Amino acid sequence: MDQHALWQIVLAKIEPTLSRPSFLTWFHDTGIAHVEDGVATVSVPNGFMREWLQNKYHKAILHALREANSDIKDVSYVIGQTETASLGSALKDRIARRKRALAPSLGEDMSIRELSVNPETSLNPRYTFSNFVVGSFNELANAAAQSVVKNPGTTYNPLFIYGGVGLGKTHLIQAIGNELIARSPNVKVRYAPSEKYMGEILDALRNQSMNALKEKYRSVDLLIMDDIQFIARTEKMQEEFFHTFNALYERNKQIIISSDRPPQAIATLEARLRSRFEGGMIADVGLPDFETRLTILKAKAETKEIVMGDDVLKYVAENIKNNIRELEGALNQLVMASKLSSAPITVDTAKKVIATYAAAPKKFLSPKKIIRAVSEFYDITEKELMHQSRKKDVVHPRQIAMYLMREHLKNSYPSIGEKFGGRDHTTVIHSCEKVGQDLLTNPELVEELKAIRERIFLN
What we know:
alpha/beta, GMP Synthetase, Chain A, domain 3, Rossmann fold, Helicase, Ruva Protein, domain 3, 4 domains, 10% strand, lipid binding, DnaA_N_dom, cytoplasm, Chromosomal replication initiator protein DnaA
């Protein structure tokens, strides 16, 4: 197998696991430079992308390469161009093929609508308030979004919405932009996933076009920045966004931000940005209950013009609880199964189709899982969490991990201490009592633990 074909297989495996903006940003102009002695060398256009792929996507790349070629044992990264680094055109071809593949199953009109994006705003027109299902899990965030539409730049600025993956944050924040444009067609809106924004900064630095990029983002009436937690990983990105934030805020332009966690829980976020985020409105999006999941399924089935029995929809709603994205994915699989078999979907059919969701075994809760979730949430390494560091950014997460082990696993204080580098049981008792007391008076900590628990039990 030649290098180009090998890399195309890798991209095909990785693409479905990422959002489209993330895939476009981090795998553009990548390729395989060479394969030698069981090591595949991946070519990237700049140092920042090399660091990002190494830190964030290395395991996924290595796994995909091993599946495609069992002789490959490791991956290295090099800055440069290769013949396989031609993802720009390849992406266009792949997106076109995806549309054609979706069309027979979901209807040509629906497939195009789902994948279309306004080139001026980067908003997806299908994200509107009219098809956004409101429940107890998101009613505060929805109310805040509606207030922003009525009084942009004044009522809640910035609006910071956080919650787990696939719970509708992107839908809600883009609905604000689409609604503002519907009311005032001349309003200037810009939606940007933070990874795309970071990629644009890299390109601007390389091409000496930073002034043009600053004008692009600082001349809008509404800026929507999705997944802000990624920006917090580098000082340069935070600095650039800080100045953009100030330029808009001082002119009373609306800023909307989303994240997978509240500002105080983004460990590497600079204090000056955290204070600005916390100066606005912060609202969370939680997990939908059964009734809301069923309502969402019915709404999506109606939008897709699909006729499906209530018993089938109830079965799906009962068995897929993690997030809205999985609900829609299961519904799409049911639609495709119905098209292929030319038969209506029954509950028995649904059981087979969504077996990958419903039949998955319940995940075993362990100290290792708690440690991993806490370290990922606070953006620190597991090694830092387990060893002797006394830095504040490490001590607090460590206390949280100890508290969760005691609460959910009922581990003894000495056994918890052993897991954290042989600490004395009195240290663990102090940590657990401190977190317990803080939870009584600190609502922000309550939200932190809520988000961490979701990460523990859903991943």
